[in-house]
Every structure is written in C-alpha cells, then in structure tokens.
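Bug report (template v2)

What were you trying to do?
Predict the complex of my protein with S-adenosylmethionine.

What happened?
Run completed; filing so the output is reviewed.

Input:
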Amino acid sequence: MIIDQYNRNHDYLRISLTDKCNLRCEYCTAEYLPIGKSTNSKYMSAAEIDSIAAVFIKNGVNKIRLTGGEPLVRKDAKEIIEKLSKYPIKLTITTNGVFVNDFIETFKNAGINSVNVSLDTLVKEQYLSITKRDEFDKVMQNIDLLLANNFHVKINVVAIKNFNDNEILNFIEWTKDKPLHIRFIEFMPFSGNEWSKDKVFTHEQILDVISSKHNFIKLINEKNDTAKKYFIPNYKGTFAVISTMSEPFCSGCNRMRLTAEGKMYNCLFGKQETDILGAFRAGNDIEPLIYQSVKSKKEMLGGNNENINWGKENTETREISMIGLGG
Ligand code: SAM
C-alpha cells in the first residue's frame, strides 16, 4: 500500500495519455498545443504504460483513469485500453466525447462501465464559441450512445461565472429523463488560463441557483469522493459539485498522477515532479520513486494553499497546465 505521512492510502492512478487535444476550450490551455493523432518518443509508449501501471497495481492501485489532453486522440489508445483491461482494477476514462463512437466496443471489451464526458454548455453556438470546434451534435449523440449501451455517464461541467452559470438549471433539467450524473466543477487556476476568483462559481452559489427551482437531497459521500452529490426526487439522474476551490477535499485524497511523458505528480496542485519514465528507461526500479513521491505529498493543495486563497487575483499555481497534467 502506498501511504503518505497523513495516513492516506493511494490506490487511484490517473494517467494522461497525451497533452494533445482536438478541442480548444477557452479556459483550458490547449490553444497553442498541437492537434494530435500522433505519438511521440517522449511519451510513454503503450508497452511502457502497461509496465509502469503494473508496478502501481502491484503496490495497491485498484483504479486507473485515462485522461489527457484528449486520451482518445492517441492513435494507440485502443491498444493501451486493451493492455490495461487485463488487470483486476476499475478502469475509467475522461473524454470530451467527440470520438466515443469509435471506442464503444473497445470500452465494453475492456470492462469500462463508467465514462466521464466533459461538456460545458447545452447550446450548440456556445459550444463552438468555447471549444472552437463544431462538434456539439456529435458529442450529444455520443452521450446518448453511451446511455443506450448502459454506461454510467458523468458529465463534467466547469462552472464559470458569466460564462455558463446561466445554464445550470438546463443541465439539471437534462437529468429529469436521462440517467446522467452532472458534476459541476469549480474553476481552478492553472498556468495561462486567466483564472481569477471572480470567475469561480462556488458550490454554495451553484446550490443557490438549483434551490431556486428544486428541492434536492444530499447523497452520502464515500471516503475518497471529490464530488458532493445530490439528487432531485423523481429525476433519473443526479448532480454533484466538485468544490476544489471553496471547500477543498484533500483529507480523503487517494490520487496519484502520471503525465503522458511519465512524470509523476502526487497532487493536481503540487509542484514536485518525479521522472518515472526516465528511471524506467534507464532500467531502474521505479517502486522506491513512487513511495518517495507519495511520502513527500503535502497535506493540502500541493502545499499551495497559501496561493490558492480567496484574497489573490490571477493566481497561477504552477508551470504545468491542466492539459499537461491531465484533468
Ligand atoms: N479531454 C478530456 C476531457 O475533455 O474530459 C480530458 C482532459 S480535461 C483537461 C479534464 C477535465 O478538466 C475536463 O472536464 C475539463 O473541463 C476540466 N478542466 C480543464 N481546465 C479546468 C480548470 N481550469 N478548472 C476546472 N476544470 C478544468
């Protein structure tokens, strides 16, 4: 078991397959990154991802999420999913949904039964404006395709003030007849994404908007849950808020992250980077490096709780962007 100095057991690994993305979301930092359907020698290969994941799994990891960038732009994404499917873990993925139709059978064969799809608006024109790509219809069709194939579908919505906060009730209405699980994510600061505290639409504000129209009931959280979950009686879906900024939930953190280049981060906000792929390629044992990284994990927000406070405007906590680290 990979336990840190605050007695948190780390059994969840998020692997970024690429920092490339086919969308250009305004608040993410993909604008200057290449569009991909390529692999690159600085990236972990499919075989390296498999071997490195095996070491984490041997040490207690029981859940792996593939993310990015957009994980499904990697041309060997299917091979990677197939390789990881042989392990006795919960395998999941976060995607913008554009290529899901090409992967339905791969997901099923790999035993993936829960997929997170990111979608910040239910208005086609607004989607084009946010992502700079005309893929709204395809994403909506793919969400329906996932539901038709009995996947548990979570929709990630980054809630930003004066950007999409006027759509919160529309997202809720969407869950009336469809078993979708909407997760409103508080806007987080990353290098180059022009964050300011004024743009954060908080957990409390989100609940205020929803309570103007609905009575809802809080669901019980599990130990490592990042989302505070709620349901509206007689609605098929649920909603949740990921309150990273207003109410961080670090005490139950069980997460470790690997970038596409095989660098390990012990926290989304942490600055400390461990070169797992470099060590692996040099033929060194990576197990001690994993333990060292987790042992040095800070109690909260990667030790950045001084910076990520409500008094500072335009805080940039780190050099690596969300897309580099994998959201
Ligand atoms: N391409 C995939 C996708 O769209 O889901 C996976 C990577 S994306 C970076 C993962 C998630 O991070 C998305 O839901 C995205 O909206 C979210 N995200 C990106 N930047 C964010 C920010 N500054 N604050 C909060 N969430 C953010």
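What did the reviewer find?
Residues 21, 27-28, 67-68, 70, 94-96, 118, 156, 158, 185, 187-188, 190, 193, 322-323, 327 surround S-adenosylmethionine (CB under 6 Å). Confidence is low (pLDDT under 50) at residues 310-316.
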